[in-house]
Amino acid sequence: MLSGQQAQDDAGRYSTAGQRYCIGIVGAGSVGCYLGAYLCQDSALDVKFFGRETMALELAANGLSATSFDHQAYFAQPVAFYSSLNSLIECDVVLLTVKAPALVPMLTQLKRFLRPEVPVVAMQNGIGIGEMLTQDLTNPVLRAIVPFNVIKNRAGQFHRATAGNIVWQQSQHAAVNYLISVFNHLQLPVQLTTDITAAEYGKLLLNLNNALNAISNVPLKQQLLDADSRMLLALAMQEWLAICSKAKIRPVPYTGLPNAMLPWLLRLPTILFRRIAAKMLPMDEQARSSMWDDIQAKKRTEIMFLNGAVVRMGQLYQLPTPVNTLLVEQIKRLESGEAEPLSISEILQQVGRHS
Ligand SMILES: NC(=O)c1ccc[n+]([C@@H]2O[C@H](COP(=O)([O-])OP(=O)(O)OC[C@H]3O[C@@H](n4cnc5c(N)ncnc54)[C@H](OP(=O)(O)O)[C@@H]3O)[C@@H](O)[C@H]2O)c1
């Protein structure tokens, strides 16, 4: 990986002075609004937010603020918010921050309104996003992986709850490099990479827990202190690590520990796990996965881009993925509302590896 500082020096904010870039944040929700609040601090950027009418009203009434666990705070008002995508035609770069299932419905509009040379930076979690977009869009598509959690604290206020550098696919686009330099300047560090696949695959390892949390139906902290749930997560991770190994991809570690150690850590007795993983356990007692939020809101989840991707890749590499397959099935049940999902211990019994 290259450092963010290098991006700043090579193609950064100072060398592009004088040029005013128009940035479109498409799908202004938690991630889009959080990042957008930073970009609004830079007078050389014209930041346009695209999203739902409800969000437009919320930001008009409250302004937009980004706060962080490390006490950084940025405020922006007024923000330019559009509930139609027509004004995308003015944008020089797009940060695409809708959830993965919303990408396909959005493609027609992107094709209609985006100038063909404008780079699109897809910020979704999951596997296959870039490939899916490039099948339909002629625009350059880049990927960026957001390692931290953003939650909405109150109307108009988006809060970064955890640490981590955004991992961003390296490119030669001046507008993209300019906004990376703005993030770095405002202490939201961006790491550039030429191996975005490794970054995607590493993030997926952590996101495999989203489904388990949604199925458990309890806060993340409580879920991770349950030995059965941790055993299932360890098994789901092992399935993915085996695929990565066969695909010869070394997933980027995001926890400070080598990825191969995570299943071992998860298998420790709860008393030991609690002590060793204290820093990794979410601070907020009530925090849950966004997949749980989606189920409650009766929305389609990102399951097919997360555990579903493990199942697809397992088929490709002829490796078994019984745990991820069962997790996908349970989330499908929750999405359809037609059948109760199996409990965590029932899933564990089905895979025949009860702790
Ligand atoms: N939040 C996090 O902590 C976090 C961290 C890392 C990565 N990510 C990833 O970042 C992506 C975005 O997550 P998020 O939490 O920011 O999602 P989010 O809060 O749901 O934001 C997406 C926004 O886009 C809107 N939207 C969807 N389709 C639209 C359309 N056609 N036109 C206008 N607006 C549209 C959504 O509205 P509706 O809800 O009404 O559809 C929602 O307000 C996901 O892939 C997620 O996995 C999130």
Automatic annotation (TrEMBL):
Q: Which GO terms describe its molecular function?
A: 2-dehydropantoate 2-reductase activity; NADP binding
Of the GO CC terms on this record, one is: cytoplasm
Q: What is its EC number?
A: 1.1.1.169
Instruction: Extract the InterPro entries matched here.
Output: 6-PGluconate_DH-like_C_sf, 6PGD_dom2, ApbA, Ketopantoate_reductase, KPA_reductase, KPR_N, NAD(P)-bd_dom_sf
For whether the record's keyword set contains NADP, the answer is: yes
All residue ranges annotated as the Ketopantoate reductase C-terminal domain in the record:
195-335
Note whether NADP occurs among the keywords.
yes
Which top EC class is named for this enzyme in its record? oxidoreductase
Per the database record, which ranges form the Ketopantoate reductase N-terminal domain?
A: 23-170
Q: Which family does it belong to?
A: Belongs to the ketopantoate reductase family.
**What's the name of the protein?**
2-dehydropantoate 2-reductase
State the organism of origin.
Answer: Rheinheimera pacifica
